Amino acid sequence: MVKLHELAPARIVPVLHPKFAPAVLADRAFLKLVKESGKAVPLVIGLERGEGSISVYRTQVLDESHSAAALNLRYAERTLKMLLWQRGGWRVIVGGPKSVGEHLRQVYSPSGARAFDFEFMGGVYEMPFTVEITSPDNVPEPQEGTMRLGRHLDGCRIGFDLGATDRKVAAVIDGNTVFSEEIVWDPRNATDPSYHFNEIMAGLKSAASHMPRVDAIGGSAAGVYINNRPRVASLFRGIPKDVFEAKTTRLFLDLQQAWGGIPFVVVNDGEVTALAGSMSLNDNAVLGIALGSSQAGGYVTPSGEITTWLDELAFVPVDYDPDAPVDEWSGDGGVGAQYFSQQAVFRLAPVAGIQLDDKLGPADQLKSVQELLCRGDDRARKIFETIGVYIGYGIAHYADFYELKHVLILGRVTSGEGGSIALDKAEEVLRVEFPDLSEKVKLHLPDETTRRVGQAVAAASLPAIR
Question: Residue 54 pairs with which residues in a beta bridge?
Answer without folding.
Answer: 48, 143
